[in-house]
Sequence to fold (680 residues):
Amino acid sequence: MSQNAPQQPPSAAGTPVRVSSSHPAPDPSTAGPAGRAGGYRGRVLVGLALALGVSLFLAHGLLARANQERAAEREQRTAAVSLLGLADLVQRAGGTGDAVRAVVAGWPGMPGSAVRVIAFSGIRLEASTFPQDTGEKAAPRKLSRDEKPLYDRGQRLRAAVETNREEGGARKPEVESELLDAGASRLLSAPVEVDGQVVGSVESLTPAVVNAEAPSWTPVLLAFLLPLAACAAAVFVLSRQGVRVAVAAALFLAGLGGYTVYSLRALDAELRETENAVSAELRTRGEKAQALITANTLKADPALKPGAWDADAMRRPLGKLTDSGAPDADKLAAAGAQVRGNATKALGALGVVGLAVLLFIGLGGLHRVVRTTVEYRQAYAYITPAMVGMVVLVFFPFAYGITLSFTDANLYNSSQPLSELWVGFRNYVDILGDFSFAKTAADGSLVFNYLNFYYTLLFTIVWTVTNVTIGVTVGLLLALALNVPNLRMRPVYRVLLILPWAMPNYITALIWKGMFHQQFGVVNHVIRMFGGEGLAWFDSPFTSFFTALATNGWLSFPFMMVVSLGALQSIPGELYEAARVDGANRWQQFTAITLPALKPALVPAVILSVVWTFNMFNIIFLVTGGDPGGSTEILVTQAYKFAFERYRHGYAAAYSTVIFGILLLYSMVQNRMSRATEAA
Fold:
């Protein structure tokens, strides 16, 4: 040993000196208590900066998008006002003649705009200010072959008007809108009606210029920097981490709340500006229309109502302006309240998410996650693909379905954002609050409402209980038979009995549906062979239920047979020998040995079978189809028909969520009562 090496002094007892472990070595990354305190302060500041920055950035983006949508609405409404006002004058002029051309020539237009009138009688271009309709092509003239789309567009409008009139509603749009030149211009078309008949159409081409003022970034910076500066001062004064996080949360809410107030005021101002702009356009064109009526001696009856020109695609007045074109104060206040309500919900959601991020980072959650991820990075690398697949294929659709259940989404409003379709718990109230599943008819008989949730739930429970009972009973009996010692050809029997389970269930469903056919089915042929009459199996609820029960019973027993047989073969034979020595008969052996030993395997299998049967879509859909009249629908097929036959997507999503809740509650109660996951 080198003489320069430090010598370790021996202990008094001659034993090696042991360093006490009660005071662990300091973490070099923290540099002592001051370093740890600095790390805690940094978490709070980073959490606040991230939560507030992201929330404000998204809130600013939402405000900018709202301003853009409001400007687009302003452009569309002013273009519609111009078109429908001209259509009103053309109708008063009779749809054809010099008066129509005088109206078109006198109708004011913005730079780059043009209008034309098509008359169906004679397929004529009655009037036009389009640049290409000059010289030899000046109106009036007959439409050329390459102008057939103009005539076809007018015929579509006429068909839409007649259809809506016959149906007594507004289903087809009576004003067509199309963006041209890569969105630089808008072409609008509306019908011309004279004496209740569509005799032509009016088209206008206007620049689709959307002048949306971008919101200022100054409020964003103020709402971000002021809370952050106050938090930076507070974390150095306060010593407890929980208090620091609480202060940061309060400052976060103050910053986002301040920007929320600014956003609501900006949205209200933009809404009033839109209504004032449309109102000014209406008043200007209303005055011009009155002058043209007087100058060209057009029909003055009925009285001119410029407010009706501010209409939707069905030509229904929006009701936001009075007949004279002035903003309706009550409607404006209601629209403002709706806009503020939607904005408050969106910003409130941002606040909840941002607050969760702040708490997660400030209380050390992110630090622990990062440390754990680094420590077990190899394990996380293995499970990452599976987790990504679960998020994309399971968790996101599940979350979207639950979100959809709180909306009134259907086939006709699928293009609208979910925020405009939000109805809260109305779908759940309609589903769970309707108890009229049966009523007494005039003759005293009981009539069931097959669309009612509680009738369908009752039928689904009966369907599930009967099928599971048949499956467990038949499967267990066959397993006991196959478990007989020295049974010959046991492998052959086992393969044959598993075949129904191995075959695709939709093939089995179609085969059994054919077997129960009234005229050609083999079941009715057998009945006729013995002198009976064939039954119309799908014409009564009971027989239709029996066909589905027989089909699903055929499919369900092999699974229970395999599970029971595996559990039976694991029971030691010595138990039965001891029971026989004690004088136990076969029934006593079955109840005291076989059933308790089967319980750990059978109970989970029964839970799975209940869930599968509860949602056995294929059998009901392919065998009975819910016939007769929906009496044999189960919950999952009813939800499918609400979604894809009645097109009530939000209602169907709520229906499916209720089904999920029922099955989740059942599985939890069943597991807790049976202790199925515990070994016997």
Notes: The longest strand covers residues 197-207.
